[in-house]
């Protein structure tokens, strides 16, 4: 009983992080209809930004999260304007191929510049609290708090601002939104920027717990996709719930077997999903 | 909700009768060139070339074989596979395991092809019933899952230590077999391009709904195309394992291994017989020339080429060349 509760706590911390990873993907797919592989490089970049900031200046990793998010926003906006904006009217597979190419280009460059070394730093969030039999590590609680903050901020942006309303409108129906005077290019760029910012922030949070390598993003991206498909493309609530579920599943399986088997099970889950929920990949749900 | 943002497709104008006739003649010439190339490649080991040239020739044949395998599925049907690296890897593992159990090269190749075939059915059955992106997704996950499974199945696959072939096979023999596989796949592409079956496959790429409407069994066709494609990929993988002589999971199921056939075929021209072969030759030779770039920049370059291809040359270089040629012919 205690073990299960403990696993639940750890799973929720990991799950909130996975929800942030997946939400960037879901947002870009929901609004633009693009399966975004470049998200992996955004995660990795966020990890490196935080690593270098913490190691070189001794600043808190939390500052790294903010810096990574800012850099991710700018890069996302730029890439949408320079590259992705050119293929708006093409079939979805072209978007997938394009972001895949960009992702491989980024992976090559990141490996070249930062080498394949495993990098980690002391996040400085030691200790924790005891709640009866359950141990609440400070690090997990901070991760949870930052993730909830990021999700709430993005959710509020989508729910309560005019820009957010425009994004939801584009996600519902591109042509109708354009007919209402919404600037599609602008909204696409903002969505991709927001996706990039969330991705980089998630990568920064990942780097506090896991080693940063050029492959960091690719390892988490696939789990992110499983969550997005499971939660319904572009649905915030669905993504958060499924993120938590997958997080708990991964921690529990990892505890009883090992991490590779946990990962393998989650990948196989996607095949099952494809069989029983074929709409998961094609249906666009409004981003609320 | 369905995708609504698709632009109206431009209908290509049907070629005039004279253009069709001249194209048929060019196809005849193409067959001769293709056969000549294959004969040259197969007799190559008898020319007494040095081992370096032979290994470059082998590498080109390997790329051509994998690219054509990819072409048979994705080039024709437009369903993009990101798992051909994994299919090749499965072939490699099955090949080495079979040969180390005391069987010959032919049995090893058959085992490689058979294993990849089974894998293609496992990926294909759930995902080919769906449209478009689902298949690409499934292949990506298949490769990731397979890498984990191979690393975990230590007693059979050697885990992270990988496997080594017990016997060495002479380079000349490997070259001949690889050229035969590449040539076979190329001839198949060539033949399909001129057959009703090939047209049916292409109709899936152009408009699957319309294809189904006129009574084409698209699911069965897609599954068959993927199975044939996997057979070639698995066979090439089995041979390649003996060329490498030692295989490691993280060098076998690589991103690059799945990206190479995709990029080579898309740039060379999807569903063309000669395009992927030409690109394999260019890639194999440039790889030697660009060796000082290192594997990281090599990967970056592959990514960049894919980006540029999607942006500017959707029909590959052969398509681009045909476009330029047509414009030049139609100049005022």
Written description of the protein model:
The complex is a heterodimer of chains A (288) and B (332). Chain A has 288 residues and is mostly helical. Helices cover 75% and strands 3% of the residues of chain A. Chain A is built from 11 helices and 2 strands. A two-stranded antiparallel ribbon of chain A has the order 1-2. In chain A, helix 1 (2-32) packs antiparallel against helix 8, helix 2 packs parallel to helix 4 (92-114) and helix 2 (39-57) crosses helix 9. With 332 residues, chain B is mainly α. Helices cover 76% and strands 1% of the residues of chain B. Chain B has a domain at 50-256. The interface between A and B is large, with 50 and 49 residues.
Compute the average pLDDT of chain A.
Answer: 84
Mean pLDDT of chain B: 81
Topology, number of strands of chain A: 2
Give helix % range of chain A: over 70%
The ordered string of helix (H) and strand (E) elements of chain A is HHHHEEHHHHHHH
Question: What would you report as the Rg of chain A, rounded to the nearest angstrom?
Answer: 18 Å
Helical amount among residues of chain B, as a percent range?
A: over 70%
What is the 3D shape of chain B? Answer: globular
- By secondary-structure content and strand pairing, the structural class of chain A works out as mainly alpha
Global morphology of chain A? globular
Radius of gyration of chain B: 20 Å
Topology as H/E string of chain B? Answer: HHHHHHEHHHHEHHHHH
Q: Helix- and strand-based class of chain B?
A: mainly alpha
CA(first)-CA(last) distance of chain B: 46 Å
Low-confidence stretches of chain B: 1-9
Oligomer: heterodimer
Task: List low-pLDDT spans of chain A.
Answer: 283-288
Strand count, sense and closure of the main sheet of chain B?
Answer: 2 strands, antiparallel
């Amino acid at each position: 009983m205690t073990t299960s509760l403990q696993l639940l706590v750890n799973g929720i911390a990991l799950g909130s992080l996975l929800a942030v990873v997946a939400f960037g993907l879901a947002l870009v797919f929901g609004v633009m209809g693009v399966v975004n592989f470049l998200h992996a490089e955004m995660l990795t970049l966020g990890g490196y930004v935080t690593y270098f900031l913490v190691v070189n200046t001794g600043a808190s990793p939390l500052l790294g999260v903010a810096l990574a998010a800012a850099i991710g926003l700018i890069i996302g906006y730029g890439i949408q304007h320079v590259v992705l904006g050119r293929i708006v009217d093409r079939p979805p597979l072209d978007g997938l191929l394009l972001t895949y190419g960009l992702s491989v280009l980024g992976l090559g460059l990141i490996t070249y510049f930062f080498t394949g070394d495993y990098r980690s730093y002391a996040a400085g969030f030691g200790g924790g609290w005891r709640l009866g039999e359950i141990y609440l590590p400070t690090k997990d609680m901070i991760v949870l708090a930052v993730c909830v903050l990021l999700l709430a901020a993005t959710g509020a942006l989508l729910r309560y601002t005019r820009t957010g309303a425009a994004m939801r409108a584009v996600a519902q129906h591109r042509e109708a939104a354009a007919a209402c005077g919404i600037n599609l290019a602008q909204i696409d760029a903002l969505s991709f920027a927001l996706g990039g910012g969330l991705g980089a922030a998630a990568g920064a949070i990942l780097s506090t717990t896991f080693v940063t390598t050029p492959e960091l993003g690719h390892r988490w991206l696939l789990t992110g996709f499983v969550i997005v498909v499971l939660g319904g493309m572009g649905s915030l609530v669905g993504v958060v719930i499924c993120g938590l579920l997958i997080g708990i599943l991964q921690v529990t399986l990892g505890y009883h077997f090992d991490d590779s088997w946990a990962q393998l099970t989650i990948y196989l889950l996607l095949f099952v999903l494809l069989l029983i929920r074929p709409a998961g990949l094609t249906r666009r749900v409004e981003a609320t | 909700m369905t995708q609504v943002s698709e632009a109206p497709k431009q209908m290509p104008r049907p070629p005039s009768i004279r253009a069709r006739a001249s194209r048929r003649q060019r196809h005849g010439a193409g067959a001769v060139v293709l056969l000549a190339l294959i004969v040259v490649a197969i007799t190559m080991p008898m020319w007494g070339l040095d081992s370096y040239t032979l290994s470059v020739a082998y590498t080109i044949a390997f790329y051509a074989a994998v690219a054509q395998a990819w072409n048979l599925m994705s080039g024709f049907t437009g369903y993009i596979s990101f798992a051909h690296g994994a299919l090749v890897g499965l072939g490699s593992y099955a090949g080495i395991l079979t040969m180390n159990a005391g069987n010959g090269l032919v049995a090893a190749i058959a085992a490689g092809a058979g294993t990849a075939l089974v894998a293609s059915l496992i990926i294909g059955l759930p995902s080919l019933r769906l449209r478009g992106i689902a298949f690409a997704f499934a292949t990506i996950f298949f490769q990731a899952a397979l890498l984990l499974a191979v690393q975990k199945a230590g007693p059979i696959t050697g885990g992270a230590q990988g496997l080594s072939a017990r016997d060495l096979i002479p380079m000349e023999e490997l070259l001949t077999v690889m050229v035969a596989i590449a040539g076979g796949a190329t001839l198949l592409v060539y033949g399909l391009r001129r057959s009703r079956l090939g047209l049916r496959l292409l109709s899936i790429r152009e408009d699957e709904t319309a294809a189904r409407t006129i009574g084409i069994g698209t699911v069965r066709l897609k599954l068959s195309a993927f199975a044939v494609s996997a057979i070639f990929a698995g066979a090439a993988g089995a041979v390649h394992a003996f060329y490498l002589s030692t295989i490691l999971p993280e060098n076998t199921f690589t991103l690059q291994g799945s990206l190479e056939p995709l990029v080579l075929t898309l740039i060379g021209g999807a569903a063309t017989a000669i395009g992927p072969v030409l690109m394999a030759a260019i890639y194999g030779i440039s790889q030697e020339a660009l060796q000082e770039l290192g594997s990281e920049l090599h990967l970056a370059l592959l990514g960049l080429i894919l980006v540029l291809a999607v942006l500017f040359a959707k029909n590959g270089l052969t398509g681009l060349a045909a476009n330029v040629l047509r414009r030049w012919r139609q100049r005022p």
